[in-house]
Amino acid sequence: MIRSLLGLGGRRKVPASLQPLLGPEERVLAVAPLEDGGELVATRFGLWAPVDRSHIRWDWALISKAGLRDRRLRVVVADPIGTWPDGTVVLADRVAQDFRLGTGSGLTDVVHDRVRRSVAASGRIEGSGGGWVVLRRVAGQDGLTVQYRPDTPGPPPSDALVALVSRRAEALRPQVR
What we know:
Distance between the termini: 40 Å
Helix content: 10-25%
Structural class: alpha+beta
Radius of gyration: 18 Å
Number of strands: 11
Order of helices and strands: HEEEEEEEEHEEEH
């Protein structure tokens, strides 16, 4: 009885402003109310955050970090800033977004699970051009995407850095879980 009153098998109802934005295969996994109004919505493809009177989706493969502390969910989203000829996607992290969650929900568990599962393997490159090389699963796509998050985004990479990232990505493939 209580589950049916809440809708979605125990989850809060999907916000009306979000319903027309969801694709046909975008299954809602969790909805969490925010203290200052609005909701965060986790779907198969990403995390939907309220923006003005609508929502924006951050794909799981573009969420660099997510953590919960004192009912505050902090999310760091990366923007693709380039793609190398070998298909490596270069990312730059945005400033962290903080969301103060209202009543309890399973959203944070879904966020942590989805972000972790999108990372097939990762490793650091040290020195100049240092950063993270990450093999990511992208929801709705086959195979793995190679991402490179430099510590400091800068000028176009040298051929040596591109080769180093490529070698590191290949070395990570046996670690894919």
